[in-house]
Design a protein that fits this description.
This protein is an alpha+beta fold and 320 residues long. The chain is built from nine helices and 21 strands. The protein has a five-stranded antiparallel sheet with strand order 6-7-13-11-12. It has a four-stranded mixed sheet with strand order 1-2-5-3, covered by helices on one side. The longest helix has 19 residues. The protein is globular, with a radius of gyration of 20 Å.
């Protein structure tokens, strides 16, 4: 189908909004990215599935995004269709919660804490949607999404299915959905534990203060750029040479390796590595995807040359 015909078909779907030539910089936390030919928002699971099928059968390139927290979009934009599922209902009964993938992760944290349900309070301040948090098994302070997930409902391209926690194949910052990008998370159910609402609120407030100091809400960044490394996966020669302070709960922060190769304060154009955190790269003004990708590639090369290990990005690329 032509682009015009595809847009007409998409616009005819109930609860779907279609825009043309939309700057992706509006939809990424980096504030970077050229225009997408078509941008589609769907407000229900049914509308989204129909829109996704329309996009996939059109012959045009297409990609599904969440809130753009971990996206790096090309300066040239995306020559195709970008789709988002915006349904965001959160429900709760006893110690069980349910959330649609378009809900903000912070909304899920607040919902659980207010009801005295323990399990998500350490996630406070992590930006992005519930669907994206499941996709990347997001976490903080030694906890991650996988600990609370009972089941995940998703669309596999031909029908809607549901996986148990084990079937999601969660690992550190990984899931089966990250490997099967043609599958799209729609909704999840969570199993929580009873807790004291006041104590959980206090914990969340303290963590939020720490996070906001490290990653100010107005900073145009994706949080940590690189995944931390599991100590057990490191070559013995590297593990032997690590100071004890560099090992935290069985992981070694990528920031430690980046510090050793002089990452702090590095700058290209308006893309800046924080002077106080070697694993934080931000857009200090009118940064470009070109400069951001160059900085990321340079840091990876430095660590590879110095230590002989590969560090892996948490960010995802669109339009490259």
């Amino acid at each position: 189908m032509s682009l015009d015909e595809t847009c007409q078909r998409l616009a005819a779907i109930d609860r779907v909004a279609v825009q043309r030539d939309v700057p992706m910089s509006r939809y990424t936390r980096f504030g970077i990215g050229g225009p997408a030919d078509v941008f589609v928002d769907a407000d229900s699971e049914e509308a989204f599935v129909e829109a996704l099928n329309t996009a996939r059968t059109s012959g045009l390139l297409n990609v599904v995004i969440g809130d753009g927290t971990n996206l790096v979009v090309s300066d040239a934009g995306f020559r195709g269709i970008v789709l988002r599922l915006r349904s965001s209902r959160i429900t709760g009964e006893s110690t069980c919660l349910g959330a649609e993938c378009g809900a903000a992760l912070q909304a899920l944290v607040d919902f659980s804490v207010a009801r005295g349900l323990q399990g998500f309070e350490t996630m406070t301040g992590i930006p992005g949607s519930v669907g994206a948090a499941i996709y990347g098994n997001a976490g903080a302070y030694g906890h991650s999404m996988m600990e609370r997930i009972r089941s995940v409902r998703f669309y596999d391209g031909s029908g809607v299915r549901e996986f148990s926690n084990a079937e999601c194949e969660f690992r550190y910052r990984e899931s089966v959905f990250k490997r099967r990008r043609d599958w799209v998370i729609l909704r999840a159910e969570f199993r929580m534990e009873p807790g004291d609402a006041a104590a959980l609120t206090e914990t969340a407030i303290k963590i939020r203060e720490i996070r906001d100091k490290k990653y100010p809400p107005t900073m145009k960044c994706a949080g940590s750029i690189f995944k931390n490394l599991l100590l057990a996966d490191l070559p013995e020669r590297i593990a032997r040479g690590l100071p004890p302070t560099a090992i935290i709960e069985g992981k070694v922060p990528s920031a430690w390796f980046l510090e050793q190769v002089g990452a702090k304060g590095m700058r290209e154009g308006d893309i800046q590595v924080a002077a106080y955190h070697a694993n934080l790269i931000y857009n200090d003004g009118a940064g470009t995807a070109h400069d951001l990708v160059n900085v990321i590639a340079c840091l990876k090369a430095r660590v590879q040359e110095r230590f002989g290990i590969a560090i892996e990005e948490e960010v995802q690329y669109v339009g490259f």
